[in-house]
Design a protein that fits this description.
Elements lengths: L11 E5 L4 H12 L3 E6 L2 H13 L3 E6 L5 H15 L4 E4 L18 H29 L2 E6 L13 H21 L4 E8 L8 H6 L1 H10 L8 H12 L10 E4 L7
Parallel strand pairs: 1-2, 1-4, 2-3, 4-5, 5-6, 6-7
Length: 260
């Protein structure tokens, strides 16, 4: 890992879902740019691997195993991160699940258990991230929060993913009202909207539905899927001082997909 420009040098950052995909790429980039990074996810071994990469490049990482749907675990993780660094400056909520092909479905076929599992992780998990993130940033005197959204929460484009679409729409609404509520407290809250990104969460779809994947890539104006690093770059900007007048906004990184 090469050293970066130091755009978030010294900042104390919590990243949920940091064990793979967008969360991992974000953690590595923030470490490269000089931040102290608290890594939250359920898979301890994967978190240790990410932390090892950050530390190996001279960065600072704290591993905090956490299921974001469980309030006691989220509260404990934030408390430990705050204690380690005497406060926090930024929170990035990436953790989420997508159950296409293994349960998520059209509303009349959707099982309640699948709905509840999706909502608990993707929406309740984001609520808890915001709850304890806002508390920490209030104590610190301000900071930045990034919520990972989705085009599925804006448009009815994910046929057969009704639970996921509803959860992401809920994240958008939650982020925007919180942004309005805490703006006077020097806390910014923004929503990053990744388009079709080539990450582990989409690997099953890419493998099992290759024709559909290729068709979607052909439809995107830039004619390709995005990368986790490209989403991480937006997350970094929104947590840097360069975005100081941005709050309550949607920041779309999708190769032009939702512009047509």
């Amino acid at each position: 890992m090469q050293s970066g420009l130091g755009r978030v040098a010294g900042k104390r950052v919590v990243i949920t879902g940091a064990s793979s995909g967008i969360g991992e790429a974000t953690a590595l980039l923030f470490g490269r740019e000089g931040a102290r990074v608290a890594l939250l996810a359920r898979r301890q071994e994967a978190l240790e691997d990410v932390a090892s990469q950050i530390r190996g490049a001279g960065g600072t990482a704290l591993v905090l195993r956490c299921d974001v749907s469980k309030e006691d675990e989220v509260a404990d993780a934030f408390a430990r991160a705050e204690e380690a660094w005497q406060g926090l400056d930024a929170v990035i909520g990436v953790a989420g699940i997508e159950l296409y092909d293994i349960g998520d479905d059209r509303v009349d076929r959707l099982e309640l258990a699948v709905w509840q599992r999706t909502i608990e992780t993707n929406l309740t998990g984001m609520f808890l991230t915001l709850k304890y993130g806002v508390r920490a940033l209030l104590r610190a005197g301000g900071g930045s929060i990034v919520v990972t959204g989705s085009p599925t929460g804006q448009y009815g484009i994910a046929l057969g993913e009704d639970a996921y679409s509803a959860a992401k729409a809920g994240c958008h609404g939650l982020a925007r009202v919180v942004a309005n509520e805490v703006a006077r407290d020097n806390i910014r809250v923004n929503i990053v909207i990744p388009g079709m990104i080539d990450t582990p969460i989409n690997a099953r779809f890419k493998e099992n539905h290759r024709d559909d994947w290729d068709g979607l890539e052909a439809f995107i104006p830039m004619r390709r899927a995005g990368t986790a690093d490209e989403i991480a770059a937006m997350n970094l900007w929104l947590c840097s001082d360069e975005s100081s007048y941005c709050t309550g906004g949607y920041f779309t990184v999708d190769g032009g997909w939702t512009s047509i």
